[in-house]
Fold this protein.
Amino acid sequence: MKSEPTKIFLYNLKLFVFRSWINAPVRTILIFLGMAFGVALIQSMHSLNTSVTRSFQENITAMSGKAALTVSAGDEGFAESWVDRISATLGIQTAVPVVESRGFLALKNFEGTGVSVLGVDLLKESTIRSYKTEDHMIEDPLVFFNQPDSVIITRELSKKLNLKVNDSLPIASKSGKTVLKIRGILEPEGPALAYGGSLLLMDIDGARVVLGKENKVDRVDLILTPGTQDKEVEDRLRKILPSHFEILKPAARSEQLEEMVAAFQKMLSAFSSVALIIGCLLIANLSSIAIAQRRKTLSILLATGIRPRVLFWMLILDSTILGVFSGIFGILLGNGLTGLMIDKVTESMSLQFGMPIIVTRLDAGKPSEWFLFIAMGVFSAMASTVFAAMRASRVSPLEAMKNDSAVNLTHTPFHFPFKLFLNGTTFLAFGNLQRSPQRTILNTLTLTLGLGFTTLLLTVSSSFQWKITRWFETVLRSDLIISSYNRLPQYPMLAQPLDESMKKNLSSVEGIKHVDHESSVMGLRMIKMNYSGKNIILKAYDEPPASYHYDVFDFVEGSPETTGPALFKTQGLPVLVSSGFVNQFHVKINDQITLPTPSGEIQATIIGVVTDFASPVGVILMARSRFSKLWDDHLVNLFSADVGPGQSVEEVRARIEKEFGASQNITAFTNKEMRTSVERTLVESFRFLDSIEFLALLIALMSLWSTTTIGVLERTREFGMLRAVGLNRKGIRLLILQESLIQGLLGSFLGIGLGLGGGYLLITYFLSRQLGWTLNFRFSYGPTGVTLTLGICVAMIAGLLPAIRAGKITIREALYE
């Protein structure tokens, strides 16, 4: 049986909490949605980050199979001769060589589609990984791999491409295009589950020929003898292998990838937190209004003996219960938002880090994580209500019974600065806003944060795009860019490299410019390389003709006139490094750095520093003539060329594609097309932030609309008196719109200042340090204009319906209210 105090508490809870929800449904829904949106963004960003991390782990696990350790040496791999030495190490039972690389389809309607090519020695492969075709295990590998053009594809890829056994599958290769024959279909088990099923399985020798990795392997997977410890084998291998070789457990390979994208994930989490803060301001605003509207109910409760402390906790309980429901809804909403954003986010990450990031299964999180996010919503709701609840619990019954239709909330910390700002105004709208400073301040602050957040994101993206676009304009001078088919030509590593012999073929095309009997065709090779435990980019350039001015380099330290020629003509191994490399590894001009090559380590001398956005960690640039010898690599990612005097760029491009396009999967882009592609891709890479901006502005809109609507209801008598002294309906509507517009303008200007300041700090300090690139803050009228426009639109939309409602109030209705 319930005690008397419990009955009283439950009765008051029903009266004060649940009935208030029913009597003010709009306010309740707005508070509910405001917090739910904030929790949804937090949950969505967490889900995105964990989904990407889980994808890394699942892909590595699927591709590693039973391997206890893997030995690798970067993108270029290492000489096949090392496999025997590794295999002979004490404690290793089986050493399985693997060629694993990014490949690209050349199939009609799927040109440039990325796949993972796995070249294996199936005579040893069964000890590491198992494969299952449509109806049986692969028992005799020779049945499938007695032809060098044999390939097995996954069931998922078979459906996507509408291909079956014995069909042809053209893929991009070092010679341009190679046609493979499908010998089997893999069921979704083991490696066939990796990368969303985008996997081609080939014999290791066939894969080497296609990918241009003759006599090389990318990694060796190791099975240890029973009872042998991983650490023991690792120590033995380190004694015989060059220092740049990596010996890792499969889990450590996943951790490397996770570390690479960690800064990007932190940025997403930080952005999503802003929406939660804006939601808190919405709740604080609406809670103050709600408590002010229930003054008489408060007086009744206080007069009947309810202690102020009990009243305070009832108000807190009100927000807590609502916080629980909004948190639960926010979790569900966040999971839906993740599904909408995942493709854009992974696309942006793939472009930024130059590697495919594919998420096939969303991670909605664990119940413990859901509880944490719900708790965040509850805590935020409670914290947003504390100030108003404390004031309400201190009101005397006599004061609370007073009829105050104006809902005077002037005793707030916000009153003094607001009064200074607005005192002396003669406009009625300003006067009305001044009478309720807390509400006006909270509305303005909510708009300021929402619009400031929008300004910040627009400023960051604008500065980032401007810097990279200017860099491309500096280094991209050639008339034509030629490569294997590539949907994104500004990312050379997203296309199959070609054999360097293609340079001679391109030079013979009619219309290609020749200078001093030298062709203007120049090759660029790009690879990923491990340097001091970090993945960087190595670029190798062909030397330009003598009359060119080495303007393919954007020098920070050094000059095209002296440093440019020195890169190709100085003895030893001179290199240029990016400013990101300097910041990451704390080096300077004339320093010696040790570079790992497939044939061993070599010393290089830094002779200059350049701006280069190929990698946020760092970029090293050298002459391709030296690179080819040291790395035994004769591939080129892209060629650049100029057209001769009087020649049409479009006509020369057409000749190249006619001669090499269909037969060798070659495509050419004009300089203008390349720049347009860069600009379009940069815009798309920030597109995923639109949903965060939208929710932040939606919360701000709800805050302004709700308080304006409630203000109209509270001022019915005031409007009647204004009508009685001659103000018409149009004037009433204009008054409400003016009040809303004033708050919108004030929020816009403050938001612009906040966003520009935050953008400067974010670009100058956080992004430059976390991403490694040297970025410059750039003021642009675009983001400020957008913010101002959005502020005015949000304010006018928020004030429109309340203004229409106020204009319909009659004098009789108002005076008898």
In short: Confidence is low (pLDDT under 50) at residues 403-426. The CA atoms of residues 46 and 344 lie 15 Å apart. The longest strand covers residues 92-104.
